Amino acid sequence: MADLLIELFSEEIPARMQASAAEALRRLVTDGLVGAGLTYANAAAFATPRRLALAVQGLSTHSPTLREERKGPKLGAPQAAIDGFLRGIGQTMADLEIRDDKKGQVYFATITTPGRAAPEIVAQVLDTTIRNFPWPKSMRWGSGSLRWVRPLHSILCILSTEAGAEIVPLTVGGITAGNSTRGHRFMAPDAFTVTGFDDYAAKLKRAHVILDPQERAAHIWNDASQMAFAAGLELVEDKALLAEVAGLVEWPVVLMGRIGADFLNLPPEVLQTSMREHQKFFSARDPKSGQIVGFVTVANRDTADKGATILQGNQKVLAARLSDAKFFWENDLRTVTAQGLDGMGAGLANVTFHNKLGSQADRVARIAALAREIAPLVGADADLAEQAARVAKADLRSDMVGEFPELQGLMGSYYARAAGLPEDVARACVEHYQPLGPSDSVPSAPVSVAVALADKIDTLTGFWAIDEKPTGSKDPYALRRAALGVIRLVLGNGVRIGLTQFEAKGVAGVVYENYYRGKTDTADTISRISDLGVPDSISSEARLTFEGSIKAQTADFVAETVDFVRETLGFDVDAVIANLLSFFHDRLKTHLREQGIRHDVIDACLAMPGNDDLTLLVKRAEALSAFLKTADGENLLQGFKRANNILTKEEAKDGVEYSFGPDPKLAETPEEKALFTALDKAEAAITPAMTAEDFATAMAAMATLRAPIDAFFEAVQINTDNQIVRRNRLNLLHRIRATCQQVADLTRVEG
Amino acid sequence: MQERSDSSSQMPQSFQEIILRLQNYWAAKGCAILQPYDMEVGAGTFHPATTLRALGSKPWAAAYVQPSRRPTDGRYGENPNRLQHYYQYQVIIKPSPPDLQELYLGSLRAIGIDDALHDIRFVEDDWESPTLGAWGLGWEVWCDGMEVSQFTYFQQVGGHDCRPVSGELTYGLERLAMYVLGVDHVMDMPFNAPDAPIPLAYGDIFRQTEEEYSRHNFHGATTEMLLRHFEDAEAECARLLDMPLQDPATGKAIRMAHPAYDQCIKASHLFNLLDARGVISVTERQAYIGRVRALAKLCADAFVQTEAGGAQAGGAAA
After folding, report:
1. Alpha-carbon gap: A355 to the closest alpha carbon of chain B (Å)
2. Domains of chain A
3. ipTM surpassing 0.90
């Protein structure tokens, strides 16, 4: 058995790539070794800013000799066949053996593949690994053609056994593997040789390199926490930052400083964001006040002055950064105090949102109108919802968000409070962006919900109207996230709205606005409209009226716009809406499947009217899913299917639909009469349950029909000679179908 | 490896001394010390000594100071470290030598940054110039948490793969010098020696110009004219490259790659000014950048067909 040590020493590897690169090295090399017939006991990979390392223990020193028997042609087969066989295996006639087979005598060959020594295999595997390494981005350097994440300087590759260590002979891109490496760039730059992994890790540590990223991270966290504790502060946890910082240093030295008093009034999010994004500092807060008052930076070396110069430099850079932040903050506060938050957002008219969707101000106007309309449906005050929507994007024009885009919304809420706006409005500024991802929380404050829905629905309808839908992996406007956001907002708050009504208006509105903006050169939509040869029909006078109505936001105007777009412009609003609705449904299906609801159950509910009311849709699906798991579920399904199958067959045969309603007077047998009675009774229970959307009760009532249906089929022949009686029975079956189809389209349910 | 010349053991005293030390250092390392390009550019990379010379197979090593203009960064001379006109120090070596990082660290020592006391770090920062159709991988170099240089291995320029690869170093001179000299406001930085008969601070030279140009960039420049000039430069660039190869006077095949590239530089600066005037919307921005990039690509296409671009002498005329 041997131990293998590999180190790929390069210029600084981006921190974010180190962990996955170490893992890729482990996987590619061990897979390669195993594929070539070697075995190993265990393997561990490590990364520092300048090296990837892999230690494989208990590696076999040879791959086994493989013997394979190959059956050839029969004795007496044409010579060409025998020659072909020999060519294929690279042997001669003398090597073949004749054996008895079921069908007679046959040539057999034994092919022996000799085992290979580990060094040969390692060299080959490592060469392939280096040349095909899955870096997210790689580069060439100098005059070479080898690609690596940054210039690769040396390769250490040794196999060690009890007899000692041997270098694996290997040259890649002009670099010959050896047994030496270097320590810390500044503290121990000289080369040294190693004999195995333990020797390597120990010598690296002496040369001021901690090989294991976990160890570096733990070291940083421990030192930083202790230092903060000693200063009476607590460290703000930030795992992503910790991993990143551990990837920026080989020899972490933790230093702590205080934030200048001038900056302590900045919002904590601003301090934290500025320090993290620009300086990769951790924040330290005062546990009593919760205020962020200190920072922790991690240097990559010890110095004679114990980091004093480094800390001083960092402090200075931080002061410059925070001066900028403070300048932005004070400037922004001045703006909102003097001009209000809407004053801050005035410039949004000059910012294009999308060339076919107008400016940010156009967008805000659309969202405000929509938020107003949605407000009563989510229990929000319409005036407040509109007001919130009008200012929610204003902070995009603030200096602070210009510098830190990730603070959008949050700054808006600070500035809204500074401008004296109601708390609901301030909260909506930050919450209307939510949920930002699958793990983000869903707002529940009514005003926030109204604006959040309006924002997302406007985005979706806008991009659908101009035919910029996500395709494959491309979703540059994050429309999938917006749709999922709508779904989560609606379901999370039990909101009852039919999405299509808003979507139709939204799509029509965008098409209409584009028509008036006359951007025939850019918008496909518009060129399509122009192709229709629609005259510039509406006079400027009428146009004024239309524009006037936009401001008035009258319901009449909206209806007129939709009609105008549909009829005069010939734009197929309904097709676009149907497409958008199915986009929502696709997202919803995924969401429901994750909750364990079967796809056929979802399809059965999607087939029902009102499927743009997602809350109702989910209520149906959940009820049906649960009901099907009960004994009554089986009854409902079997009863329904029995009635439906025969009815469907007869309807197809006769080419008519038996929907006239059966007449109980024509019932001949007791079973038939009993079925009428059962139906009356069931319907009496189903109707109020459906009104109350109590789907479980409705379905339980439907399930009671199974026994009478079964009895009916036992006793009664549908196809009698009396056509009147036959039609009546088919009409009866139709009534059963109609009754049972109220919760979901049961024909789509499997089983 | 850790060479330290005696001259660098003393700390520099002024902005110009830092520049001079860099000039001497890179001259000693074999770079041709060029002068600034005589046009308005946004960064040292725009100098044809970088943009064009990074193309083709011919070896190249140059270093120079490049005055750079970023109209939107104007702060009327009030911001301690933001200027609409500033200096970059640019080094470009093709092919990139294997010890380029060490050479770079040597240059920091030359200007008084002792890595035994400071924390120098190479932090991922991939460089991309959408207007030049150029990108490369590298780092921003941090000294005690401050970015002091950009370090890039060019992979593509003007849409062409760089073979061999050039190594490019860009030092933001004001920021670097303020750090070395311990100055908090750029305008307070000594430009020449503080004990010179007439000591001049950075502000003595540039405070007024920052004020004037800030007003110009944000409010003064005539946008209609800028738009017109942009169109002119764009048209001229393409026209120069479309002209027949044969020079009517000498009969020689002369491809006007550099004059065309001048027009590309012009268009780029005009775009920056228009941007500062706030008349370019977010989406239009992309379109303008695309137009400048198209010019840069044309110039790169032309340059690689010239002798300096590595084409065979016969090939250039063909």
Report:
1. 7
2. 2-62+117-206 (3.30.70), 68-113 (no CATH), 213-350+393-421 (no CATH), 432-580 (no CATH), 625-748 (1.10.730.10)
3. yes
